[in-house]
């Protein structure tokens, strides 16, 4: 689908590649109609910088984000006749400072930040998606007593998941992000984990989904999971089923980290959503029907049968896309999930 709401560039994100302009030009080349630029907000403690950011400081990240907004709006204007560029940001919640600083950043840039991708990347101030070792540290930070180390891990996994969803809920409450970013990133290294097996975390997840639906958020279906070895996009089938059952709305994101990642795995994502029987997709637009978000954009439903759009005919499927339906079916069967499409609409 010619829409994406979540992207990064090497110019403003050290684990990405290419310039922001390269990303926009590639989106134009592929036929995207709406493309969101959403670099990470600054991090404010030296200990929260990543290895690839050696030599940088929190102050330099603050300046880098200001430079991103300048360049994003330049590109928005320069290519307005060819593509609708949306200028947003992706959240961080490591400590309370991040929430306070984000509030200030939004106030200072109220006319320049058009939307928020609300994401959580840390639990107990430890990154959960940087590498497996960091994830394990975050997981074990949820152990309350030495005795729990001798359990099979279910107890502290439940606490880990609950901590993730509690942090997510606080971010949702405070900022009402228009796009909910990779909702189930907490199981990045455990894609077959079923939240329903952890009752406390499961209830918190459903609480978060209901809250986001109530203020009108769009839940991104994020292709990056396929790049990281999943057989589905984020979120997994169990979470998509809850979102749809509760009346939530889905939007697409490639979560590209450079021009070579623009539109990557969209064919697989199309097959995944078709397998689930998803009949509606949504995107953000400047055109208001009276239901605009507080930052000014509005949700719009993709007209017609989204899977019939000409965009898909131009999409070159990767090798992984071949037989995606069979892969997904095998995955769902192994995980004990339904092989039947989710019935909606």
TrEMBL record:
Signal peptide: none
Any one annotated GO CC term: cytoplasm
Family recorded in the similarity comment: Belongs to the PHP hydrolase family. HisK subfamily.
PANTHER family: HISTIDINOL PHOSPHATASE-RELATED, HISTIDINOL-PHOSPHATASE
Pfam family name, one: PHP
A GO term, aspect molecular function: histidinol-phosphatase activity
GO BP, sorted A to Z: L-histidine biosynthetic process
UniProt keyword annotation of Amino-acid biosynthesis present: yes
Catalytic activity: L-histidinol phosphate + H2O = L-histidinol + phosphate
Class of this enzyme: hydrolase
Protein name as annotated: Histidinol-phosphatase
Boundaries of every PHP domain copy: 5-223
EC number, UniProt record: 3.1.3.15
InterPro entries per the UniProt record, alphabetical: Histidinol_P_phosphatase_HisJ (IPR010140), PHP_dom (IPR004013), Pol/histidinol_Pase-like (IPR016195)
Keyword terms of this UniProt record: Amino-acid biosynthesis, Histidine biosynthesis, Hydrolase
Pathway: Amino-acid biosynthesis; L-histidine biosynthesis; L-histidine from 5-phospho-alpha-D-ribose 1-diphosphate: step 8/9
């Amino acid at each position: 689908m010619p829409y994406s709401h979540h992207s990064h560039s090497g110019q403003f994100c050290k684990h990405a590649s290419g310039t922001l302009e390269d990303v926009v030009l590639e989106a134009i080349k592929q036929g995207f109609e709406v493309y969101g630029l959403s670099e990470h907000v600054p991090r404010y403690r030296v200990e929260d910088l990543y290895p690839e950011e050696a030599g940088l400081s929190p102050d330099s990240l603050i300046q880098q984000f200001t430079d991103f907004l300048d360049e994003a709006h330049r590109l928005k204007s320069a290519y307005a006749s060819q593509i609708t560029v949306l200028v947003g940001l992706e959240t961080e919640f490591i400590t309370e400072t991040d929430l306070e600083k984000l509030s200030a950043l939004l106030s200072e840039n109220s006319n320049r930040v058009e939307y928020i991708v609300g994401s959580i990347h840390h639990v107990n101030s430890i990154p959960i998606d940087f590498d497996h070792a960091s994830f394990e540290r975050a997981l074990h930070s949820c152990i309350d007593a030495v005795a729990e180390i001798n359990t099979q891990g279910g107890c502290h996994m439940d606490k880990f998941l609950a901590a993730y969803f509690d942090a997510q809920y606080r971010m949702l409450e405070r900022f009402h992000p228009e796009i909910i970013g990779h909702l189930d990133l907490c199981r990045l290294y455990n894609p077959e984990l079923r939240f329903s097996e952890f009752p406390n975390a499961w209830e918190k997840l459903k609480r978060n989904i209901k809250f986001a639906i109530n203020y009108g958020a769009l839940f991104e279906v994020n292709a990056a999971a396929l790049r990281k070895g999943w057989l589905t996009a984020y979120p997994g089938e169990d979470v998509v089923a809850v979102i749809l059952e509760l009346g939530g709305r889905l939007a697409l994101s490639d979560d590209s980290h450079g021009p070579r990642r623009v539109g990557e795995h969209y064919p697989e994502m199309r097959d995944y959503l078709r397998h689930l029987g998803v009949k509606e997709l949504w995107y953000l637009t400047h055109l208001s029907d009276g239901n605009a978000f507080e930052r000014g954009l509005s949700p719009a439903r993709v007209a017609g049968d989204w899977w019939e759009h000409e965009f898909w005919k131009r999409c070159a499927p990767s090798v992984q896309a071949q037989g995606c339906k069979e892969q997904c079916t095998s995955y769902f069967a192994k995980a004990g999930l339904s092989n039947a499409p989710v019935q909606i609409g």
